[in-house]
Amino acid sequence: MTNQVSEFPTERTFQYQHSLPPLPVPSLEGSLAKYLDAVRPFATEEEYHVTAAVVKRFGEGIGKDLHQKLLQRARTRRNWLEEWWLDAAYLELRYPSQLNVNFGGPAPYLEHCWPPTEGVQLQRTSISMWHTLQYWDLLRTERLDPHKAGNVVLDMDQFRMLFCTCKVPGVTKDTIINYFKTESEGPCPSHVVVMCKGRFFSFDAVCDGHILTPPELLRQLTHVKQCCEGEPAGDGVAALTSEERTLWAKAREYLIGIDPANKTILETIQSSLFVVSLDDAKPYATSENYTPVTREALTGDPTIRWGDKSYNSLSFADGTFGSNCDHAPYDAMVLVTQGYYVDQQLKATDGKWKGSETVRPMPLPEELVFTVDDRVRSDVAHAKQQHLCVCLQTQDLQVVCYAFTSFGKAAIKQRKLHPDTFIQLALQLAYYRQHGRLGSCYETAMTRRFYHGRTETMRPCTLEAQNWCHTMLLPAASVSVRRKALLLAFNKHNKLMAEAQNGKGFDRHLLGLYLIAKEEGLPMPDLFTDPLYSKSGGGGNFTLSTSLVGYTTVLGAVAPMVHHGYGFFYRIGDDRIVASCTAWKSSRETDAETLFQNLVTSLHEMLHLATTAQL
């Protein structure tokens, strides 16, 4: 996910899109065998035999028919999963998006040139915006090199969704509107929306064909801030985007109905490059503890962020930054890549603007004022109240986000071990130590080598991982025995991850079979109602919801999938591992702080084992 930028590129950003292979459909026999292997760690002998019989009947009966229908669907689509995934995972969901769907996190700049500092919010925001606009221009002109895994070209379609993209609520299903165009495709919106104290402002980020410089952006931001200081807060219409989706859809329809100008304002927000939120909060995160800004990014003021926008850039009063983004149009690696680009540019310039201070004549930001009546005010008040209830709930959400600085990728690779697998097995051991059993675990696997590929589920909780964790907690187990168990767990994990990335995972396949049965009104097959299906994580019931955010400086966070579970995002640097861990305080079973400390213990134990065993 590095940003290779070429002034005169030999490869354009999106040039390989039409030559990517279609997403394959795995074999039914292979998927069912992998599924049985995945449920084994959570079953007694009796439970396993019952499930094996269910799987056998499915494979010989209704499963065959469903699989054939899936193959038929795949013949007419380059990605048989794409539409289903968008609908089932995002657009058909009715609960509020901002905490349940969106992802957010801290910007990494506080690690070097921009530590928390008051009085610099607007100046830093202008520079951050300028670098973000440069990234938009790289995509517009296709000067960002296509991503590759070795020599394998990866799908870049999600990068079209970072800018000028918004989700629009529907009564039964939402939609995604994307206004982005490359230079060769035609004109693209170039305005940004700035939100401050419940009010909206918009201005064009391009003047006479050139992106506004930081001094020019600062002038625009200063005008917005001056308009809002000492004045009553705006109507806070943005809070409606934090509502339950059907309620928001109906409120939006009414908003448009009372004044057609409201529709124009909505379209201005939807089509904007991105939203900048000038937030009065002061999280005061540090390079060792990112918890405050991570929490604020996930649960902050709903009146100054547009929850349906693909990118809300959050600027805090203490000079730190974060983001909150709708997950539907793209996966986190898109924002990670953009955030890393900005971070590297800031490092290279020490966070300063070294160009011209001249400010060209240009229009000041225009305030976007919705026409509202008592019903809209009531809807906004209800949305704020619901968000307050969610915030009370999020006080129940325990968030820890720390840097482990004893070692990182360099030390792990020196011992010829895969860093991501190392972290995943350390997490399994930490959970096992804390709870006395393994937890069903989801890890994101990337399928971008296929047309419009996004993700597949990789399940790290294997029999081999279970055996290794058990062995590590046996005082009598020798280094040799532990080493052998560790190697088996590593090899199994690496094998499953490679298969998932190459279109040979099984979770998305089973989802496809489930959705065909549902669409055709067939009785739900026993495989999906069998207790081990959900116990092993199926149907979105994973105890550990995890994802490697990358080997950059960017991190994010998500809430747990289930009440008795954990959310666990992490990034791996050369000399550090930074992890955000979430849990519900109301669950008597879980504690994120303890899990992180157990993770630290596991990391040290594993490196010691790898060193003494000379793996």
TrEMBL record:
A GO BP annotation: fatty acid beta-oxidation
Q: In which pathway does it act?
A: Lipid metabolism; fatty acid beta-oxidation
Reported EC number(s) for this entry are: 2.3.1.137
- Which InterPro entries does this chain map to? Carn_acyl_trans, Carn_acyl_trans_N, CAT-like_dom_sf, Cho/carn_acyl_trans, Cho/carn_acyl_trans_2
Q: Which GO terms of the cellular component aspect does the record hold?
A: peroxisome
Q: Has keyword Nuclease? A: no
- Name of the protein: Peroxisomal carnitine O-octanoyltransferase
Q: Which organism is it from?
A: Oncorhynchus mykiss
Classification lineage: Eukaryota, Metazoa, Chordata, Craniata, Vertebrata
